[in-house]
Structure formats: structure tokens, C-alpha cells
Specification:
52% helix; rod-shaped; phosphoprotein; 5-stranded mixed sheet; EC 2.7.13.3; kinase activity; Heat Shock Protein 90; transferase; 5-stranded antiparallel sheet; alpha+beta; 14 strands; Beta-Lactamase; Helix Hairpins; transmembrane; 3 domains
Length: 483
């Protein structure tokens, strides 16, 4: 009826759980009803037997007189009584027929032991199910006898059968309702899953305009929202990738055009020495620019594949920042942008890769110079507190809008395409800082300026054996750590 799948599993599991629970309840109910009826019959006969034994107990009459008096006074409808000796032989019964049979049921030993015996079973002669209740008594204070009442359970069993049939019909009706409900429940789960599966198949074929439609609840709603978000992110990533390809193509074409043009010019001959120097200077500059672009792309690829290795040493952040200020001094002079380092006379050592940390801060400071106004200042602040060293680079440039600030560290994202670049610089910077177990926080306001703060764990304070001109304090080979 159902093909293999989640719908079938839900229906079967739900149906069988309810079926087993219902079966257990009905079995307990039927046993309780049967016990109630049987106990009621036993209680009624037991009370009657106790009255009878109290009446005949201790009397000196003969068995015949006692039997006749019991028959006239203490008879029960649809119940026969018997008087047995202590061996189980039937001496007298209410039918009036002599019997030579011997009673061997379990109620007799119970009665002889002083209890009220009870036995439920089938009569050997008729095969009918009966209940026997027995209790001993004495005549003349000497002879021990057992009075035994036997009643048929046919009527009770017929009622129990009717109740059982009615309970079974109710159970079937309940299972039918449960089956219909479970099918509806399964469909409410499977249909959204089928819809989500179809949309996923379309997305796998490259149709990223497809979305999961429908207001689904709970986990299915979360799954649909996640799939739609994934599709939107794929579209955005593809757009960013296309923009990156367009941007990097332009970035590569510009220096290559300059190199090609000057190479052809120098190759033609008839040039003066000054023109040669200018051409070679431009070729060298554009070549360095190309190398920087390629290295940036390679660094990003290594970070994405977790292949970037860091050579860890004790690094002096003050000397790194001082060297970076010298590197960007010429670029800052062109825009009349001034840089100032503010730091107390403290050791600012961290455990890290000096070259990669220089790459981090060079990128941050270079961006600050690039987006600063003319005749402005950039402040580099070093602070050490609670086992961490923070470097804040603050400018008063064009700033970043709140919308772009959340995305500026995403790969390939460019807030300002006019200044060029691959859009990978801050993404690489972020990941390098994280590899050093640090944190980079950006605060910016459009038209006011930007502050980038990098916080790194401070290295344990150690006194260097001698003043080093390098920004790294290298120890023995076995103290270096490569991660």
C-alpha cells in the first residue's frame, strides 16, 4: 500500500506502538473483568458456605437429616451441593442420585486444611467449566465432612465473551482512527520533505533561483529556511566570485599593460638614459604589484585548505609597528598622511610568526593610509593588559557604513571598488589573527573614520640576553614551534 520510505515507517511505527499499547490495556481489562466476575461468584458462595457450616457444625443429626435440611433451607439457584467425607467420596448430593465418584480437585485439600477451598476447571463428566467452593464441618463433634458447592460458569463465560468481542471491536475502531491519523501525520511530514528534496535537486542542477515555499513549522521550517539561506549565499558567493574575477582581471591587466608597453618601448631602442630609468622603475614597481596580488591569492588558498604553517617565535610588536611605519612612510608622504606610534616603555612580546604578523599590521595600516584624507593623522596604539597585548590602528578617513562593516571581512568583498584590490586582504588578516589565537575588532562610522583593534596573547616575560635589532627574539632551534 505504501512504498518504502519515511511515510511507511511513520505509519507502521505509530500504528504498532498504539496497537501494542491498546492490546496491553485490553488484556489487562479483560483479566480484571474476568477476575471481578469470578471473585463475585466465589464471594457469594463463600458467604453461603460459611452460613451453612455454622448452622450444621457440632450437630448430632445423621447425614441424611442434615442433607435434607440443607436442601430445604440453604439451596442455591443453578448450584448443586455435595457432602464429602475426608477421602473425597461423594456421600450426598443435591441431585438425589447416588455417586460413586471420588473428588480429587484442589479445593478439597484446601478445605481439609481449614481454609475455604476454591477450584475452577472443567467437570470430568460433562466437560463444562465450573467453580467449586468447599469447607469442612463436623457432625457429632467427631466425624469430619466437607460441604462442596459446584456452580456452572457457562453464563458468566458467555458474558465475558460478549465483553471481549465488544472490546475487540472498539480496539479495531481505535486502530482505524489511529491509522487514518498516522497517515495524515506522515503526509504532513513527508510532503514538505519531498518539496525540500525537489528544490534541493534543482539547486544541485544550478538553478539557484529556486526556493522552498510554504510556512513549515519546527525542524522542517528550520530546514527550509536553512536551504533557502544556502541558496541565497550561493547566489551571493557566485556574484562575489564574478566580481572578484572581474576585479582581479582588471588588477592584473593594468600592471601587465604597463610592463608590456615599457618593454616594447625599451626594445625599440633610440632612448635616452633618463627614459630608460623611468621605464625600468615602472616595470619593477608593476612587477612587485603583480607578485603581491599572486601572493595574496596563494595565501588565501593556503588558509582555505588549512595548509598555512606558522613558525612561532617571541616577537616584539613595537619593532614590527616601527618597521611598518617606515615601509608606508613614502606612501603616506604622497597624501601628507602622518603616522604616530603611542606606546609605554614596556616589553610587547607575543608568541607568533613575525612575517605573518607583519603582514597583518601592514595590511591594516596600508588600508588606513589608502582611505585617509590628505593632511590627516593615523594613530597606532600599543597596550598591554591582563596577559594580552592590543594594537589599535585609528584613522580619520572616509569610514565604513554599518551595512558594509558586517561584510568587510568576507572574502572577495570590496566596500570601495575605486581603490582596487582583490577583496582578500582583511579576510586573510582575520584568519591569520585567529591562527595566533587572537581577535580582530573593527569599529567604523561613515565619514568619521575607522579603528581596527588586534588583540593577541602576550608571551611570558623574559629578559633578553642582549639587545636585538630584529623584531624577533630567537632562541635555540628546539624552542621554535611550527604550527
Amino acid at each position: 500500500m505504501f512504498k518504502r520510505g519515511i511515510r511507511r515507517q511513520i505509519v507502521l511505527h505509530y500504528f504498532f506502538v498504539v496497537f501494542l499499547a491498546l492490546l496491553l490495556v485490553e488484556v489487562i481489562f479483560l483479566f480484571a473483568i474476568r477476575a471481578y466476575y469470578y471473585d463475585s461468584i466465589f464471594g457469594h458462595i463463600k458467604n453461603h458456605v460459611e452460613v451453612v457450616t455454622d448452622f450444621v457444625g457440632g450437630r448430632s443429626d445423621t447425614e441424611e437429616n442434615v442433607s435434607q435440611e440443607l436442601l430445604n433451607t440453604f439451596k442455591l439457584d443453578k448450584t448443586q451441593y455435595e457432602i464429602l467425607d475426608d477421602q473425597g467420596n461423594v456421600l450426598i448430593n443435591s441431585t438425589g442420585f447416588e455417586s460413586d465418584r471420588r473428588v480429587q480437585t484442589s479445593d478439597l485439600p484446601q478445605a481439609l486444611a481449614g481454609d475455604i477451598g476454591r477450584w475452577v476447571g472443567r467437570e470430568t463428566t460433562t466437560g463444562e467449566q465450573v467453580m467449586a467452593v468447599s469447607k469442612k464441618f463436623q457432625l457429632s463433634g467427631e466425624n469430619v465432612y466437607v460441604i462442596r458447592y459446584v456452580t456452572s460458569l457457562k453464563g458468566v463465560n458467555e458474558k465475558l465473551f460478549t465483553i471481549t468481542l465488544l472490546a475487540a471491536l472498539i480496539g479495531v475502531a481505535v486502530l482505524a482512527v489511529v491509522f487514518i491519523f498516522s497517515v495524515g501525520l506522515a503526509n504532513s511530514i513527508v510532503r514538505p520533505i519531498n518539496n525540500i528534496t525537489q528544490v534541493s535537486a534543482q539547486l544541485a542542477k544550478g538553478r539557484f533561483d529556486k526556493r522552498v515555499k510554504g510556512n513549515y513549522r519546527y525542524e522542517l521550517g528550520e530546514l527550509a529556511s536553512t536551504l533557502n539561506y544556502m541558496a541565497e549565499e550561493i547566489v551571493r558567493t557566485n556574484q562575489v566570485k564574478d566580481d572578484f574575477i572581474s576585479s582581479i582581471s582588471h588588477e592584473l591587466r593594468t600592471p601587465l599593460t604597463s610592463i608590456k608597453g615599457w618593454s616594447e618601448t625599451l626594445n625599440m631602442g633610440d632612448y635616452d638614459p633618463e627614459e630608460t630609468r623611468v621605464g625600468m622603475r615602472i616595470i619593477s614597481k608593476e612587477t612587485e604589484r603583480l607578485i603581491g596580488l599572486v601572493e595574496e591569492i596563494l595565501d588565501f588558498s593556503k588558509l582555505q585548505q588549512n595548509e598555512m604553517k606558522l613558525v612561532m617565535n617571541r616577537v616584539n610588536l613595537r619593532e614590527i609597528l616601527q618597521e611598518i611605519m617606515l615601509n608606508v612612510w613614502a606612501k603616506g608622504e604622497q597624501k601628507q598622511v602622518h603616522l604616530k606610534l603611542e606606546a609605554e616603555e614596556l616589553p610587547y612580546f607575543v608568541q607568533g610568526d613575525a612575517n605573518r604578523l607583519k603582514q597583518v599590521f601592514l595590511n591594516i595600516v596600508d588600508n588606513a593610509v589608502k582611505f585617509s584624507h590628505e593632511n590627516s593623522w593615523i594613530f597606532l596604539t600599543l597596550q598591554k593588559e591582563n596577559g594580552f597585548i592590543s594594537v589599535a590602528v585609528q584613522d580619520t578617513g572616509i569610514g565604513i557604513s554599518e551595512e558594509h562593516l558586517a561584510k568587510v571581512r568576507d572574502r572577495f568583498f570590496q566596500a570601495d571598488h575605486q581603490h582596487g584590490g582583490t577583496g582578500l586582504g582583511l579576510a586573510i588578516t582575520q584568519q591569520i589573527v585567529e591562527l595566533h589565537h587572537g581577535e580582530m575588532v573593527m569599529q567604523s562610522e561613515l565619514g568619521v573614520g575607522t579603528t581596527v583593534t588586534v588583540t593577541l596573547p602576550a608571551a611570558e616575560d623574559e629578559e633578553p640576553e642582549e639587545e636585538l635589532s630584529s623584531y624577533t627574539e630567537e632562541g635555540p632551534e628546539d624552542e621554535k614551534e611550527v604550527i
